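User: I'm writing a tutorial on reading structure tokens. Could you give me a worked example: one chain, its sequence, then its tokens, then a sentence or two explaining what the tokens reveal?
Assistant: Sure. Here is the example chain.
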Amino acid sequence: MLEKGDNPEKLDNDWVLRFFEFCKNVSNEDLQYVWAKILANECKENSNNSFKLLNTISEISNNEINLIRKILKECNYGIRNFEAIGIICIKNEYLEDIDIKYDEIIKLEDFGIMKREITTLQDEISFDLENEIIKFIRKPKKKGHLNLIKYANFYRFTHIGMEIIELINEEISGNQFKKLEKAFDYEYNVMLEKK
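And here are its predicted structure tokens:
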């Protein structure tokens, strides 16, 4: 994991003491790999592994790591607002459609790995992506029908969540646009535009 130019001698003694205190009882191989990667990253010239990252990694289990991997495979898109990716959904049933339980998301929120943001849906709303824009355009009201959807939940990874994603070397799927379209189909046209 160490690369040419890495300098283990630059490690701060306080950081090293906390590091070993946090990881001393880890027996799971996946989590051991994550800890080894953190240590190797700290030897790099511009490293910045916070104590908060160490604390968060020490509190989670391999179940949370696997859940993060699962979410990344089912992400609607690699949404880059605040350098974050996430899941846009309108109701908990959508999470069930992608085989993620709402309480699992809440657990990641409790650890500070994900954050829920509620977006009020207006006649038109856009999410800015890296190379594209996802637009939600409200369909005209049908006679006798009220528009029901007033907001969407956007679960995004926090800064700590993004650091964990980097550590576990997981690719971001970002190919779930059809599922997103289907979830909002009753009331919105969902379009993907290239920048």
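What the tokens reveal: Confidence is low (pLDDT under 50) at residues 78-84. The chain has eight helices and six strands.
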